[in-house]
Amino acid sequence: MMNQSVAVDQDRRGIAPGFRDHWETLTAEQKMSLYQLQTWGYRLLFVRNMPSGPLAIIAQDQEIATIDTEGTLNTHPDIHLRPH
Asked: Does residue 59 lie in a domain region?
């Protein structure tokens, strides 16, 4: 299991963490919510480490959503992603 500090160190070195790295940082509640949402076409983009815990950034087509540490879905988050 990868700890969060390792994921941050890898990101700083320019090595993008993979799906498994992000998955390992999620809480059990987030994993259960994402598992259910995948049937509706949601996919995990990445996880941000926030003071309140990991925040899963997910997408369905071009629509961005988040899942908080308690597994609650927010389909209208106030976040803006950089174009890649």
From this structure: yes
Give the CA radius of gyration of the chain: 12
One pLDDT digit (tens) per residue for the chain, 84 residues: 333 434 444 445 566 777 677 788 999 999 999 999 999 999 999 999 999 999 999 999 989 999 999 999 999 999 877 776
Q: Are 41 and 61 in contact (CB under 8 A)?
A: yes
* C-beta of residue 16 within 8 angstroms of C-beta of residue 54: no
- The answer to whether residue 24 is domain-embedded is yes
Is residue 79 situated within a structural domain?
no
77 CB-near residues (< 8 Å, 6+ apart): 64, 65, 66
